[in-house]
């Protein structure tokens, strides 16, 4: 698990690890809480989440959570998660969720991270990547579009806009 790394030379993705707890807590802001985390993190809750993510990697579970890193993989600037099974997903669909800490937004890092993780998702059996975006989050929708996803109608009464990408033919 600890050896998994994906990099394009600017962004490096690697599994979340215990030393990421402080960086995540320092980077969390109102936008991450609102659109991604579901509530403010505490040391205990973030530590428990990181431990859960590590267990998922160890057990080849449906969640694969990566830290988005810069500076040769040293500085944690956000996260990108893949969920290979979740409510509302059809078999073969993988949900992609991402969030950057405020100082790192607007630099194309989230788009790079999404593009970087898609071939991995395809190798792990994903056939279609799905990004679910709250309509009030235009930044996240812009990342999806820049990463080559196309809009699909809102699904299942969730109120979320879906963006999809065929991993069998459309991966970079």
Q: Helices and strands in order, then pairings?
A:
Blueprint: E1 6-7, E2 12-15, H1 20-27, H2 30-37, H3 43-58, E3 63-70, E4 75-83, E5 93-100, H4 109-123, E6 128-133, H5 138-146, E7 150-152, E8 161-166
Parallel strand pairs: 5-6
Antiparallel strand pairs: 1-2, 2-3, 3-4, 4-5, 6-8, 7-8
Helix pairs in contact: 1-3
Keywords: Transferase
GO molecular function, one term: protein-N-terminal-alanine acetyltransferase activity
Pfam families: Acetyltransf_3 (PF13302)
What can you tell me about this protein's structure?
The protein has 172 residues and is an alpha+beta fold. It has one domain (6-166): Aminopeptidase (3-Layer(aba) Sandwich). Helices cover 33% and strands 27% of the residues. The chain has 5 helices and 8 strands, in the order E-E-H-H-H-E-E-E-H-E-H-E-E. It has an 8-stranded mixed β-sheet with strand order 1-2-3-4-5-6-8-7, sandwiched between helices. A hairpin with a 4-residue loop joins strand 3 (63-70) and strand 4.
């Amino acid at each position: 698990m600890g050896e998994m790394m994906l990099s394009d030379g600017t962004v490096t993705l690697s599994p979340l690890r215990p030393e990421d707890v402080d960086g995540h807590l320092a980077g969390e802001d109102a936008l991450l809480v609102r659109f991604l985390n579901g509530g403010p993190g505490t040391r205990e809750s973030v530590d428990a989440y990181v431990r859960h993510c590590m267990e998922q990697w160890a057990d080849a579970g449906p969640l694969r959570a990566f830290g988005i890193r810069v500076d040769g993989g040293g500085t944690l600037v956000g996260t990108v998660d893949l969920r290979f099974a979740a409510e509302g997903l059809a078999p073969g669909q993988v949900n992609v969720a991402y969030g950057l800490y405020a100082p790192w937004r607007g630099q194309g890092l989230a788009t790079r991270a999404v593009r970087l993780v898609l071939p991995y998702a395809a190798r792990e059996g994903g056939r279609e990547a799905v990004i679910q975006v709250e309509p009030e989050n235009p930044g996240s929708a812009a990342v999806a579009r820049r990463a080559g996803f196309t809009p699909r109608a809102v699904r299942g009464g969730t109120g979320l806009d879906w963006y999809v990408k065929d991993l069998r033919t459309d991966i970079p």
